[in-house]
Design a protein that fits this description.
The complex is a heterodimer of chains A (246) and B (252). Chain A has one domain. Chain A is 87% helix and 0% strand. Chain A has 8 helices and no strands. Chain A is elongated. Chain B is of the alpha/beta class. Chain B is built from 9 helices and 11 strands. In chain B, strand 10 and strand 11 form a beta hairpin. In chain B, helix 3 packs across helix 4 and helix 3 runs parallel beside helix 5. At the A-B interface, helix 4 of A face helix 2, strand 7 and helix 3 of B. The structure holds adenosine-5'-triphosphate and magnesium ion. Magnesium ion (MG) binds next to helix 1 of chain B.
Protein backbone atom coordinates (compact mmCIF):
# COMPACT_ATOMS: atom_id res chain seq x y z
CA UNK A 1 0.00 0.00 0.00
CA UNK A 2 2.75 2.42 0.99
CA UNK A 3 4.81 1.39 -2.03
CA UNK A 4 1.77 1.86 -4.27
CA UNK A 5 1.31 5.39 -2.95
CA UNK A 6 5.03 6.09 -3.34
CA UNK A 7 4.80 4.84 -6.91
CA UNK A 8 1.89 7.15 -7.66
CA UNK A 9 3.76 10.07 -6.14
CA UNK A 10 6.80 9.17 -8.19
CA UNK A 11 4.66 9.02 -11.31
CA UNK A 12 3.26 12.46 -10.50
CA UNK A 13 6.78 13.81 -10.23
CA UNK A 14 7.65 12.24 -13.55
CA UNK A 15 4.66 13.93 -15.19
CA UNK A 16 5.69 17.28 -13.75
CA UNK A 17 9.19 16.81 -15.18
CA UNK A 18 7.81 15.93 -18.58
CA UNK A 19 5.52 18.96 -18.42
CA UNK A 20 8.39 21.25 -17.53
CA UNK A 21 10.58 19.78 -20.27
CA UNK A 22 7.82 20.30 -22.79
CA UNK A 23 7.78 24.02 -22.19
CA UNK A 24 11.39 24.68 -21.24
CA UNK A 25 12.85 23.84 -24.63
CA UNK A 26 11.65 24.03 -28.19
CA UNK A 27 9.77 20.82 -29.04
CA UNK A 28 11.70 18.49 -31.36
CA UNK A 29 9.29 18.86 -34.28
CA UNK A 30 10.94 16.60 -36.83
CA UNK A 31 11.30 13.78 -34.32
CA UNK A 32 7.69 14.21 -33.17
CA UNK A 33 6.43 13.82 -36.71
CA UNK A 34 8.65 10.80 -37.13
CA UNK A 35 7.13 9.29 -33.99
CA UNK A 36 3.60 10.05 -35.16
CA UNK A 37 4.28 8.39 -38.47
CA UNK A 38 5.87 5.44 -36.74
CA UNK A 39 3.03 4.94 -34.25
CA UNK A 40 0.30 5.46 -36.84
CA UNK A 41 1.85 3.39 -39.54
CA UNK A 42 2.62 0.48 -37.26
CA UNK A 43 -0.84 0.29 -35.72
CA UNK A 44 -2.91 0.93 -38.82
CA UNK A 45 -3.17 -2.54 -40.43
CA UNK A 46 -4.22 -4.35 -37.28
CA UNK A 47 -6.51 -1.49 -36.41
CA UNK A 48 -8.33 -1.74 -39.73
CA UNK A 49 -8.82 -5.49 -39.39
CA UNK A 50 -10.06 -5.40 -35.82
CA UNK A 51 -12.32 -2.37 -36.35
CA UNK A 52 -13.91 -4.01 -39.38
CA UNK A 53 -14.64 -7.26 -37.61
CA UNK A 54 -15.88 -5.62 -34.45
CA UNK A 55 -18.23 -3.73 -36.75
CA UNK A 56 -19.53 -6.90 -38.38
CA UNK A 57 -20.20 -8.55 -35.04
CA UNK A 58 -21.85 -5.50 -33.54
CA UNK A 59 -24.26 -5.54 -36.47
CA UNK A 60 -24.98 -9.26 -36.02
CA UNK A 61 -25.53 -9.02 -32.28
CA UNK A 62 -27.50 -5.80 -32.57
CA UNK A 63 -29.75 -7.52 -35.05
CA UNK A 64 -30.14 -10.57 -32.77
CA UNK A 65 -30.98 -8.37 -29.83
CA UNK A 66 -33.54 -6.25 -31.63
CA UNK A 67 -35.33 -8.91 -33.71
CA UNK A 68 -37.45 -10.30 -30.80
CA UNK A 69 -38.46 -6.73 -30.02
CA UNK A 70 -39.34 -6.07 -33.63
CA UNK A 71 -36.84 -3.22 -33.79
CA UNK A 72 -34.23 -4.57 -36.17
CA UNK A 73 -34.31 -1.20 -37.93
CA UNK A 74 -32.53 0.21 -34.90
CA UNK A 75 -29.23 -1.54 -35.65
CA UNK A 76 -27.85 1.68 -37.13
CA UNK A 77 -28.58 3.52 -33.92
CA UNK A 78 -27.01 0.76 -31.87
CA UNK A 79 -23.82 0.94 -33.93
CA UNK A 80 -23.65 4.68 -33.45
CA UNK A 81 -24.09 4.45 -29.68
CA UNK A 82 -21.98 1.42 -28.86
CA UNK A 83 -19.49 1.38 -31.72
CA UNK A 84 -18.77 5.03 -32.31
CA UNK A 85 -19.06 6.47 -28.84
CA UNK A 86 -17.65 3.61 -26.80
CA UNK A 87 -15.88 0.83 -28.60
CA UNK A 88 -13.81 2.59 -31.21
CA UNK A 89 -11.93 4.96 -28.89
CA UNK A 90 -11.05 2.37 -26.25
CA UNK A 91 -10.26 -0.25 -28.88
CA UNK A 92 -7.81 2.07 -30.59
CA UNK A 93 -6.30 2.98 -27.24
CA UNK A 94 -5.82 -0.66 -26.26
CA UNK A 95 -4.21 -1.48 -29.55
CA UNK A 96 -1.89 1.50 -29.46
CA UNK A 97 -1.03 0.65 -25.85
CA UNK A 98 -0.20 -2.88 -26.93
CA UNK A 99 1.90 -1.87 -29.92
CA UNK A 100 3.29 1.62 -29.45
CA UNK A 101 3.10 1.70 -25.63
CA UNK A 102 5.05 -1.49 -25.15
CA UNK A 103 7.58 -0.32 -27.68
CA UNK A 104 8.06 2.96 -25.82
CA UNK A 105 8.46 1.17 -22.50
CA UNK A 106 10.94 -1.39 -23.77
CA UNK A 107 13.02 1.04 -25.81
CA UNK A 108 13.36 3.46 -22.93
CA UNK A 109 13.99 0.65 -20.45
CA UNK A 110 16.82 -0.69 -22.59
CA UNK A 111 18.29 2.79 -22.83
CA UNK A 112 18.07 3.07 -19.07
CA UNK A 113 19.89 -0.19 -18.33
CA UNK A 114 22.53 0.49 -20.97
CA UNK A 115 23.20 3.85 -19.31
CA UNK A 116 22.13 5.72 -22.44
CA UNK A 117 19.81 7.89 -20.36
CA UNK A 118 22.68 8.72 -18.01
CA UNK A 119 24.73 9.53 -21.10
CA UNK A 120 22.06 12.02 -22.21
CA UNK A 121 22.10 13.60 -18.75
CA UNK A 122 25.87 13.99 -18.81
CA UNK A 123 25.65 15.53 -22.28
CA UNK A 124 23.33 18.08 -20.66
CA UNK A 125 20.40 16.95 -22.79
CA UNK A 126 17.20 16.61 -20.82
CA UNK A 127 16.19 12.95 -21.34
CA UNK A 128 12.53 13.77 -20.69
CA UNK A 129 12.64 16.30 -23.48
CA UNK A 130 14.61 14.06 -25.80
CA UNK A 131 12.75 10.81 -25.19
CA UNK A 132 9.26 11.60 -23.91
CA UNK A 133 8.22 14.83 -25.59
CA UNK A 134 8.40 13.56 -29.20
CA UNK A 135 6.50 10.41 -28.27
CA UNK A 136 3.96 12.54 -26.43
CA UNK A 137 3.42 14.89 -29.34
CA UNK A 138 3.44 12.00 -31.79
CA UNK A 139 0.78 9.99 -30.00
CA UNK A 140 -1.41 13.07 -29.49
CA UNK A 141 -1.25 13.81 -33.20
CA UNK A 142 -1.99 10.31 -34.33
CA UNK A 143 -4.44 8.80 -31.86
CA UNK A 144 -7.42 11.02 -32.80
CA UNK A 145 -6.77 10.27 -36.46
CA UNK A 146 -6.59 6.54 -35.80
CA UNK A 147 -9.82 6.77 -33.82
CA UNK A 148 -11.61 8.46 -36.73
CA UNK A 149 -10.30 5.83 -39.14
CA UNK A 150 -11.44 3.10 -36.79
CA UNK A 151 -14.92 4.63 -36.49
CA UNK A 152 -15.25 4.90 -40.25
CA UNK A 153 -14.12 1.30 -40.79
CA UNK A 154 -16.36 -0.03 -38.06
CA UNK A 155 -19.44 1.73 -39.35
CA UNK A 156 -18.72 0.75 -42.94
CA UNK A 157 -18.28 -2.92 -42.02
CA UNK A 158 -21.45 -2.99 -39.96
CA UNK A 159 -23.33 -1.26 -42.76
CA UNK A 160 -22.20 -3.88 -45.25
CA UNK A 161 -23.24 -6.73 -42.97
CA UNK A 162 -26.58 -5.10 -42.11
CA UNK A 163 -27.51 -4.39 -45.71
CA UNK A 164 -26.04 -7.29 -47.66
CA UNK A 165 -26.21 -10.10 -45.10
CA UNK A 166 -29.09 -9.20 -42.82
CA UNK A 167 -31.14 -7.49 -45.54
CA UNK A 168 -31.78 -4.26 -43.66
CA UNK A 169 -32.68 -1.05 -45.44
CA UNK A 170 -29.47 0.84 -46.28
CA UNK A 171 -30.71 4.47 -46.36
CA UNK A 172 -32.60 3.88 -43.13
CA UNK A 173 -29.43 2.52 -41.45
CA UNK A 174 -27.50 5.60 -42.48
CA UNK A 175 -30.24 7.94 -41.48
CA UNK A 176 -30.57 6.44 -37.98
CA UNK A 177 -26.84 6.14 -37.45
CA UNK A 178 -26.16 9.72 -38.48
CA UNK A 179 -29.09 11.07 -36.51
CA UNK A 180 -27.69 9.36 -33.39
CA UNK A 181 -24.12 10.52 -33.96
CA UNK A 182 -24.07 14.26 -33.56
CA UNK A 183 -20.94 16.07 -34.83
CA UNK A 184 -20.13 16.89 -31.24
CA UNK A 185 -19.97 13.15 -30.49
CA UNK A 186 -17.07 12.84 -32.89
CA UNK A 187 -15.37 15.72 -31.11
CA UNK A 188 -15.89 13.88 -27.83
CA UNK A 189 -14.22 10.85 -29.38
CA UNK A 190 -11.27 13.03 -30.32
CA UNK A 191 -11.17 14.26 -26.75
CA UNK A 192 -11.14 10.70 -25.48
CA UNK A 193 -8.38 9.83 -27.91
CA UNK A 194 -6.25 12.70 -26.62
CA UNK A 195 -6.79 11.62 -23.03
CA UNK A 196 -5.93 7.99 -23.79
CA UNK A 197 -2.86 9.04 -25.77
CA UNK A 198 -1.58 11.09 -22.86
CA UNK A 199 -2.16 8.21 -20.44
CA UNK A 200 -0.49 5.61 -22.66
CA UNK A 201 2.54 7.75 -23.37
CA UNK A 202 3.15 8.89 -19.80
CA UNK A 203 2.56 5.48 -18.24
CA UNK A 204 4.70 3.61 -20.78
CA UNK A 205 7.56 6.07 -20.63
CA UNK A 206 7.39 6.13 -16.84
CA UNK A 207 7.78 2.36 -16.63
CA UNK A 208 10.63 2.56 -19.09
CA UNK A 209 12.46 5.21 -17.10
CA UNK A 210 12.06 3.39 -13.79
CA UNK A 211 12.93 -0.10 -14.98
CA UNK A 212 14.93 -2.44 -12.79
CA UNK A 213 18.29 -3.57 -14.13
CA UNK A 214 18.61 -6.61 -16.37
CA UNK A 215 16.55 -8.15 -19.16
CA UNK A 216 13.87 -9.28 -16.71
CA UNK A 217 13.51 -5.65 -15.66
CA UNK A 218 12.78 -4.65 -19.25
CA UNK A 219 10.20 -7.42 -19.58
CA UNK A 220 8.48 -6.39 -16.41
CA UNK A 221 8.47 -2.73 -17.32
CA UNK A 222 6.93 -3.50 -20.70
CA UNK A 223 4.31 -5.71 -19.20
CA UNK A 224 3.37 -3.25 -16.47
CA UNK A 225 3.17 -0.46 -19.03
CA UNK A 226 0.51 -2.15 -21.14
CA UNK A 227 -1.50 -3.46 -18.19
CA UNK A 228 -1.55 -0.17 -16.33
CA UNK A 229 -2.31 1.93 -19.39
CA UNK A 230 -5.15 -0.37 -20.44
CA UNK A 231 -6.69 -0.33 -16.97
CA UNK A 232 -6.37 3.43 -16.56
CA UNK A 233 -7.78 4.05 -20.04
CA UNK A 234 -10.78 1.80 -19.34
CA UNK A 235 -11.56 3.62 -16.12
CA UNK A 236 -11.10 6.93 -17.81
CA UNK A 237 -13.35 5.80 -20.65
CA UNK A 238 -16.14 5.13 -18.18
CA UNK A 239 -15.70 8.45 -16.42
CA UNK A 240 -15.49 10.41 -19.66
CA UNK A 241 -18.53 8.69 -21.17
CA UNK A 242 -20.48 9.46 -18.02
CA UNK A 243 -19.49 13.13 -18.20
CA UNK A 244 -19.64 13.65 -21.96
CA UNK A 245 -22.56 11.49 -23.03
CA UNK A 246 -24.49 11.44 -19.73
CA UNK B 1 45.34 4.90 5.58
CA UNK B 2 46.50 8.15 4.00
CA UNK B 3 44.42 10.50 1.94
CA UNK B 4 46.35 13.45 0.52
CA UNK B 5 44.90 16.80 -0.46
CA UNK B 6 45.78 17.95 -3.97
CA UNK B 7 46.92 21.57 -4.27
CA UNK B 8 44.32 22.89 -6.77
CA UNK B 9 41.29 20.59 -6.81
CA UNK B 10 38.75 21.03 -9.61
CA UNK B 11 36.37 18.56 -7.95
CA UNK B 12 35.89 17.98 -4.23
CA UNK B 13 33.83 15.41 -2.39
CA UNK B 14 33.18 15.86 1.29
CA UNK B 15 32.08 13.02 3.55
CA UNK B 16 30.00 11.33 0.90
CA UNK B 17 27.56 8.65 2.04
CA UNK B 18 25.42 6.56 -0.27
CA UNK B 19 23.42 3.41 0.31
CA UNK B 20 20.95 1.43 -1.78
CA UNK B 21 18.47 -0.05 0.67
CA UNK B 22 20.52 -2.11 3.08
CA UNK B 23 23.65 -2.00 0.97
CA UNK B 24 26.11 0.68 2.10
CA UNK B 25 28.17 1.61 -0.95
CA UNK B 26 29.93 4.83 0.05
CA UNK B 27 30.67 5.29 3.72
CA UNK B 28 32.25 8.69 4.17
CA UNK B 29 34.45 9.47 1.18
CA UNK B 30 36.38 12.75 1.22
CA UNK B 31 38.88 13.74 -1.45
CA UNK B 32 39.79 16.24 -4.15
CA UNK B 33 40.69 15.77 -7.79
CA UNK B 34 43.67 17.81 -9.03
CA UNK B 35 43.12 20.13 -11.98
CA UNK B 36 44.80 19.24 -15.26
CA UNK B 37 46.10 15.89 -14.05
CA UNK B 38 44.92 12.33 -14.41
CA UNK B 39 43.41 10.76 -11.33
CA UNK B 40 42.90 7.02 -11.26
CA UNK B 41 40.56 5.31 -8.83
CA UNK B 42 41.19 1.64 -8.28
CA UNK B 43 39.09 -0.88 -6.49
CA UNK B 44 37.76 -4.40 -6.64
CA UNK B 45 34.59 -5.04 -8.61
CA UNK B 46 31.41 -3.88 -6.93
CA UNK B 47 32.99 -1.47 -4.44
CA UNK B 48 31.14 1.55 -5.75
CA UNK B 49 33.57 3.09 -8.20
CA UNK B 50 30.86 3.73 -10.78
CA UNK B 51 28.56 5.01 -8.07
CA UNK B 52 31.25 7.42 -6.92
CA UNK B 53 31.86 9.08 -10.29
CA UNK B 54 28.17 9.29 -11.03
CA UNK B 55 27.95 11.62 -8.04
CA UNK B 56 30.39 14.04 -9.66
CA UNK B 57 27.95 14.94 -12.44
CA UNK B 58 24.81 14.63 -10.34
CA UNK B 59 23.57 11.37 -11.86
CA UNK B 60 23.17 10.11 -8.31
CA UNK B 61 22.33 12.09 -5.22
CA UNK B 62 24.27 11.39 -2.05
CA UNK B 63 22.41 10.48 1.14
CA UNK B 64 24.67 12.97 2.86
CA UNK B 65 27.83 14.85 2.04
CA UNK B 66 28.81 17.42 -0.55
CA UNK B 67 30.04 17.37 -4.12
CA UNK B 68 31.76 20.47 -5.46
CA UNK B 69 32.91 21.27 -8.98
CA UNK B 70 34.95 24.46 -8.61
CA UNK B 71 32.56 26.65 -6.63
CA UNK B 72 29.29 24.98 -7.65
CA UNK B 73 27.78 22.54 -5.22
CA UNK B 74 26.45 19.90 -7.60
CA UNK B 75 24.38 17.74 -5.26
CA UNK B 76 22.05 20.56 -4.22
CA UNK B 77 22.22 22.60 -7.44
CA UNK B 78 19.15 23.37 -9.54
CA UNK B 79 18.62 21.38 -12.72
CA UNK B 80 19.77 24.38 -14.74
CA UNK B 81 22.99 24.73 -12.75
CA UNK B 82 23.64 21.02 -13.01
CA UNK B 83 23.28 21.16 -16.78
CA UNK B 84 25.69 24.09 -16.88
CA UNK B 85 28.23 22.05 -14.92
CA UNK B 86 27.71 19.00 -17.11
CA UNK B 87 28.58 20.96 -20.23
CA UNK B 88 32.13 21.06 -18.83
CA UNK B 89 32.21 17.26 -18.64
CA UNK B 90 32.55 14.34 -20.98
CA UNK B 91 31.92 10.85 -19.78
CA UNK B 92 32.66 7.43 -21.10
CA UNK B 93 30.42 4.80 -19.62
CA UNK B 94 31.46 1.30 -18.72
CA UNK B 95 29.81 -0.29 -21.76
CA UNK B 96 29.80 2.65 -24.12
CA UNK B 97 26.18 3.79 -23.79
CA UNK B 98 26.00 4.55 -27.51
CA UNK B 99 22.61 5.18 -29.11
CA UNK B 100 21.80 2.09 -31.18
CA UNK B 101 19.55 3.83 -33.66
CA UNK B 102 22.35 6.14 -34.81
CA UNK B 103 25.54 5.41 -36.72
CA UNK B 104 28.91 5.61 -35.02
CA UNK B 105 29.53 9.06 -36.48
CA UNK B 106 26.10 10.38 -35.52
CA UNK B 107 26.79 9.26 -31.98
CA UNK B 108 30.01 11.24 -31.92
CA UNK B 109 28.45 14.39 -33.32
CA UNK B 110 25.37 14.09 -31.12
CA UNK B 111 26.53 16.63 -28.48
CA UNK B 112 27.54 19.07 -31.24
CA UNK B 113 24.03 18.96 -32.65
CA UNK B 114 22.53 20.11 -29.37
CA UNK B 115 25.21 22.41 -27.96
CA UNK B 116 26.72 24.15 -30.95
CA UNK B 117 25.37 25.90 -34.02
CA UNK B 118 27.70 24.12 -36.44
CA UNK B 119 26.14 23.00 -39.69
CA UNK B 120 26.03 19.35 -40.71
CA UNK B 121 29.25 19.44 -42.72
CA UNK B 122 31.19 21.07 -39.90
CA UNK B 123 29.79 18.61 -37.38
CA UNK B 124 30.77 15.70 -39.54
CA UNK B 125 34.27 17.08 -39.97
CA UNK B 126 34.75 17.44 -36.21
CA UNK B 127 33.30 13.98 -35.56
CA UNK B 128 35.64 12.43 -38.12
CA UNK B 129 38.59 14.21 -36.51
CA UNK B 130 37.71 12.75 -33.13
CA UNK B 131 37.20 9.30 -34.61
CA UNK B 132 40.63 9.54 -36.21
CA UNK B 133 42.01 10.50 -32.82
CA UNK B 134 40.72 7.24 -31.33
CA UNK B 135 42.10 5.42 -34.37
CA UNK B 136 38.78 4.59 -35.95
CA UNK B 137 38.93 6.74 -39.07
CA UNK B 138 36.55 4.67 -41.18
CA UNK B 139 33.56 3.90 -39.01
CA UNK B 140 31.56 7.11 -39.41
CA UNK B 141 28.75 5.51 -41.39
CA UNK B 142 28.84 2.16 -39.63
CA UNK B 143 25.71 1.34 -37.59
CA UNK B 144 26.50 1.15 -33.90
CA UNK B 145 25.31 -2.45 -33.73
CA UNK B 146 28.01 -3.47 -36.22
CA UNK B 147 30.84 -2.32 -33.96
CA UNK B 148 32.92 -4.61 -31.77
CA UNK B 149 33.08 -4.05 -28.02
CA UNK B 150 36.42 -2.28 -28.22
CA UNK B 151 35.27 -0.12 -31.12
CA UNK B 152 32.16 0.89 -29.20
CA UNK B 153 34.31 2.04 -26.31
CA UNK B 154 36.51 4.11 -28.54
CA UNK B 155 33.51 5.68 -30.30
CA UNK B 156 32.19 6.47 -26.85
CA UNK B 157 35.51 8.09 -25.99
CA UNK B 158 35.34 10.18 -29.17
CA UNK B 159 31.87 11.33 -28.15
CA UNK B 160 33.07 12.19 -24.65
CA UNK B 161 35.75 14.55 -25.97
CA UNK B 162 33.88 16.02 -28.91
CA UNK B 163 32.93 19.22 -27.08
CA UNK B 164 36.47 19.55 -25.71
CA UNK B 165 35.41 19.43 -22.09
CA UNK B 166 37.42 20.49 -19.02
CA UNK B 167 36.99 17.14 -17.34
CA UNK B 168 36.58 13.66 -18.81
CA UNK B 169 35.31 10.81 -16.67
CA UNK B 170 36.10 7.27 -17.73
CA UNK B 171 34.40 4.26 -16.31
CA UNK B 172 36.72 1.35 -17.05
CA UNK B 173 38.16 2.56 -20.35
CA UNK B 174 39.96 -0.68 -21.06
CA UNK B 175 37.86 -3.49 -19.68
CA UNK B 176 37.18 -5.81 -22.59
CA UNK B 177 39.93 -4.33 -24.72
CA UNK B 178 42.93 -6.28 -25.94
CA UNK B 179 46.26 -5.14 -24.47
CA UNK B 180 47.27 -3.33 -27.63
CA UNK B 181 44.09 -1.26 -27.95
CA UNK B 182 44.24 -0.75 -24.24
CA UNK B 183 47.66 0.85 -24.38
CA UNK B 184 46.44 2.94 -27.32
CA UNK B 185 43.72 4.31 -25.07
CA UNK B 186 46.29 4.97 -22.34
CA UNK B 187 48.53 6.82 -24.77
CA UNK B 188 45.56 8.80 -25.96
CA UNK B 189 44.68 9.87 -22.44
CA UNK B 190 48.25 10.96 -21.70
CA UNK B 191 48.45 12.90 -24.94
CA UNK B 192 45.14 14.68 -24.47
CA UNK B 193 46.06 15.59 -20.93
CA UNK B 194 49.31 17.19 -22.10
CA UNK B 195 47.93 18.87 -25.21
CA UNK B 196 44.51 20.00 -24.10
CA UNK B 197 44.99 20.33 -20.36
CA UNK B 198 42.00 18.11 -19.73
CA UNK B 199 41.47 16.72 -16.24
CA UNK B 200 40.89 12.98 -16.39
CA UNK B 201 39.22 10.84 -13.81
CA UNK B 202 39.69 7.20 -14.66
CA UNK B 203 38.13 4.25 -12.94
CA UNK B 204 39.74 0.91 -13.37
CA UNK B 205 40.70 -2.30 -11.70
CA UNK B 206 43.71 -2.62 -13.93
CA UNK B 207 46.80 -1.73 -11.91
CA UNK B 208 48.99 -1.61 -15.03
CA UNK B 209 46.82 1.07 -16.51
CA UNK B 210 46.63 2.93 -13.23
CA UNK B 211 50.39 3.18 -13.02
CA UNK B 212 50.74 4.01 -16.71
CA UNK B 213 48.50 7.05 -16.69
CA UNK B 214 47.76 8.01 -13.09
CA UNK B 215 49.29 11.19 -11.68
CA UNK B 216 47.20 10.70 -8.58
CA UNK B 217 45.96 7.29 -7.59
CA UNK B 218 43.32 6.23 -5.09
CA UNK B 219 42.10 2.90 -3.81
CA UNK B 220 38.46 2.46 -2.92
CA UNK B 221 37.55 -0.44 -0.70
CA UNK B 222 34.73 -1.17 1.70
CA UNK B 223 33.01 2.12 0.96
CA UNK B 224 36.08 4.16 1.91
CA UNK B 225 39.09 5.61 0.21
CA UNK B 226 41.86 3.59 1.88
CA UNK B 227 44.73 5.29 0.07
CA UNK B 228 44.95 8.39 -2.10
CA UNK B 229 47.87 10.48 -3.24
CA UNK B 230 50.45 11.14 -5.96
CA UNK B 231 51.67 7.99 -7.70
CA UNK B 232 55.00 7.83 -5.83
CA UNK B 233 53.25 8.07 -2.46
CA UNK B 234 50.65 5.54 -3.51
CA UNK B 235 53.35 3.03 -4.40
CA UNK B 236 54.73 3.31 -0.86
CA UNK B 237 51.36 2.58 0.73
CA UNK B 238 51.26 0.28 3.73
CA UNK B 239 47.62 -0.68 3.14
CA UNK B 240 46.97 -4.40 2.66
CA UNK B 241 44.45 -3.83 -0.11
CA UNK B 242 46.88 -1.64 -2.03
CA UNK B 243 49.78 -4.07 -1.50
CA UNK B 244 47.51 -6.87 -2.70
CA UNK B 245 46.70 -4.98 -5.88
CA UNK B 246 50.30 -4.01 -6.46
CA UNK B 247 51.52 -7.57 -5.92
CA UNK B 248 49.64 -8.57 -9.04
CA UNK B 249 51.71 -6.26 -11.17
CA UNK B 250 55.08 -7.87 -11.88
CA UNK B 251 56.66 -4.75 -13.27
CA UNK B 252 56.64 -3.00 -9.89
N1 LIG C 1 21.00 2.05 -8.94
C1 LIG C 1 21.38 1.10 -8.07
N2 LIG C 1 20.46 0.49 -7.28
C2 LIG C 1 20.83 -0.45 -6.40
N3 LIG C 1 22.09 -0.87 -6.22
C3 LIG C 1 23.04 -0.32 -6.97
C4 LIG C 1 22.75 0.69 -7.94
N4 LIG C 1 23.90 1.06 -8.54
C5 LIG C 1 24.86 0.31 -7.98
N5 LIG C 1 24.37 -0.51 -7.03
C6 LIG C 1 25.14 -1.43 -6.20
O1 LIG C 1 26.22 -0.72 -5.64
C7 LIG C 1 27.38 -1.51 -5.62
C8 LIG C 1 28.51 -0.78 -6.29
O2 LIG C 1 28.23 -0.68 -7.66
P1 LIG C 1 29.23 -0.03 -8.71
O3 LIG C 1 28.60 -0.18 -10.03
O4 LIG C 1 29.62 1.32 -8.29
O5 LIG C 1 30.51 -1.00 -8.60
P2 LIG C 1 31.90 -0.84 -9.35
O6 LIG C 1 32.91 -0.55 -8.32
O7 LIG C 1 31.75 0.13 -10.45
O8 LIG C 1 32.11 -2.31 -9.89
P3 LIG C 1 32.61 -2.80 -11.35
O9 LIG C 1 34.09 -2.70 -11.33
O10 LIG C 1 32.14 -4.20 -11.44
O11 LIG C 1 31.98 -1.91 -12.36
C9 LIG C 1 27.03 -2.82 -6.29
O12 LIG C 1 26.83 -3.78 -5.29
C10 LIG C 1 25.76 -2.54 -7.03
O13 LIG C 1 24.94 -3.68 -7.04
MG1 LIG D 1 31.51 0.01 -12.49
Amino acid sequence: MVTALARIGDFGLFCVRVGRSTFRHRPPIARSIEEAYHIGFRSLPILLVISAFVGTNLALQGYNAFVPLGGQRLVGMFIALAGVRELAPIMVASMVAAKAGTEMASQIAVMRIQEQIDALEVMAIDPHWYLVVPRFVGICLVLPALTMISIFTLVLASYLVSVYQLGLNGPEFIQLASATTRPVDLWYCVLKAFAFGIVICLVSCYYGFTTRPGPSGVGRATNAAVVVSAVVCSLLNYVMSEILFG
Amino acid sequence: MTVREPPDPIIRMVDLHKRFGELVVLDGVTFGIPRGLTTVLLGPSGTGKSVLIKHIVGLLEPDSGEVWVDDVRVDTASVRQQYAVRKRFGMMFQNGALFDNLTAGENVEFPLRYHTSHNAAKRRKIAEEKLALVELPEVYDRPTSALSGGQRKRVSLARAIVLEPDVVLFDEPNSGLDPLTSSTVDALISRMKDQLGITFVVITHDIVQALAIGDWIGMLSGGELVEYGPREDFLKSESDVVRGFLARNHTV
